[in-house]
Amino acid sequence: MKLCRLTLRAQGVCRNASKNFSSFSTKLPLQTSSPSLTQRKNKNSSHGSPTFSNKTESDSSLYRRISPVGDPGLSIVPVLDQWVSEGRKVDKDSLDSIVKSLMKFRRFTHALEVLEWMTDKRYIPPTKGDIRDRLHLIYKVHGLEKAEEFYNNISQVFKGFHINICLLNIYALEKLEDKAEAMMQKLRDSGRVSTPLPFNILLNLYYNVGKWEKMDAIANEMENAGFYQDKYSFTPRLRAYAATGNIEGLNKIMEIMEADSRVGMDCETYLIAAHAFLKAGLGEKSFELLKKVEKMAITTKGRHQTLHTVLYTYAKLGKKGEVDRIWKFLKKEKIYNVGYRNMIISLLKLDDVEGAETIFKEWETQGLSYDFRIANDLIDVYVKNGELEKAEAVLNSGIEKGGTPKFHTWYRLMIGYIEADQVLKGVEALKNAVSNCYVSPYEEPIKDKLAIVLEYLERKRNVEEMEGFMESLVAEGVVSSTVCARLFDFITNMTS
């Protein structure tokens, strides 16, 4: 009977804590997972990569119905409701797998909808893992404030180490040092810190906010508390030593990592180390570590993704022969868009524009979906070199092949046209840039500023006000002084 009451209470708590969030659609810029967050995902089964091979055909069919609804602005709740109205059954395990898969592909809004639907419409009692995932997803979809509101409404029955760790990681991603330290102290006071994870999150936070002097204190605390340092403990310190040019520190950390089998040196860790040594100006040491990665990658499951990263790092080292060698090996199997783009970027980093053009033409013949980001890489170079006809040719060819230009495409062309004193074409590109084309979260502020410029152009607003605004764009690096001057002259002539 007590268990029954607890289950009903659990349902009520979860519904009460989440009831304010279902109507929000505010978008948050996508965050890059820290090493510590990656560790949490790997060690926590509710964040693992799902497979449906052991599920029934009906379970996987539900996922296949949900999967095509890629637009986060479209709700998948009607799909779930329709499934049930057809008399089909769903259980928690299959819904959990769908949530994991949606999270894997960064479909956070839809994953949150499934979690809410599980509890609110299917009356499936939530677990602590469900509530932790919901907290994480509310942050991704609605932002920090709504995540904190949800956390504050979670019953003490469900709060604990994993929920607090989730909020700690959110604070770290937001670079909120004071709040993260307060949550860490709460974890210490609970006496339930049993893994290096919270320490690793703080180490990564201190690296990201430049408080490198605090990292040694955290490492010492870990050691005094009896926690061994894993690869996620060492990699932020590697990056910090690289940023400060501390060669002695880099070498010392590498010696410790390679000597301790518990660290678990793998391809990813050696790649991080290779980048750290490269940043510190130690190219030969970086090259040596890349060779180790190559040998390890041959026997690993994700070897192709690893080797693409190795290829790009060789390009940063200026090793054209190594780039060509790795590419030849990778081409033994099918290469997809991400691989072609990586090779084109690598060749451009080596100033081999002709080689990049050759790979681009090869990509166009592969029958892959047209990804305009690949075209943008060449357009960027052509604009920089003043070869606007070539840039236009790539643009037009991409549109003919079914591609959709992105914000970056028109933004770069706008810059190129105006710098080449083709202001009318630049204004047309500006209009396209602020239209409904795709914009990534980090580009949204630039798009918003360009929309204001367009408003000045179309409404012929106060010229002096426009001049001040344009100067602010130059200071922020949105446009060059040349673009600013020519746009301002264009507007002045329109209003005179």
Your description of this structure?
The chain has 496 residues and is mostly helical. The protein is built from 27 helices and no strands. 69% of the residues lie in helices and 0% in strands. The radius of gyration is 26 Å and the shape is globular.
The number of helical runs is 27
| Shape type | globular
SSE-based structural type: mainly alpha
Helix content: 55-70%
The separation of the N and C termini measures 82 Å
Number of strands: 0
Cα-atom radius of gyration = 26 Å
Low-confidence stretches: 1-59
Q: What percentage of the residues does DSSP assign to strands (E)?
A: under 5%
Largest sheet: none
Oligomer: single chain
What series of H and E elements makes up the topology? HHHHHHHHHHHHHHHHHHHHHHHHHHH
Mean pLDDT: 84
List strands and helices in order, with pairings.
Layout: H1 2-18, H2 35-43, H3 57-66, H4 77-85, H5 92-104, H6 108-120, H7 128-142, H8 144-152, H9 161-173, H10 177-190, H11 197-208, H12 215-224, H13 231-244, H14 247-259, H15 267-279, H16 283-297, H17 303-316, H18 320-330, H19 337-349, H20 353-364, H21 372-384, H22 388-400, H23 407-419, H24 423-433, H25 444-459, H26 463-476, H27 481-495
Helix pairs in contact: 2-11, 5-6, 6-7, 7-8, 7-9, 8-9, 9-10, 9-11, 10-11, 11-12, 11-13, 13-14, 13-15, 15-16, 15-17, 16-17, 17-18, 17-19, 19-20, 19-21, 20-21, 21-22, 21-23, 22-23, 23-24, 24-25, 26-27
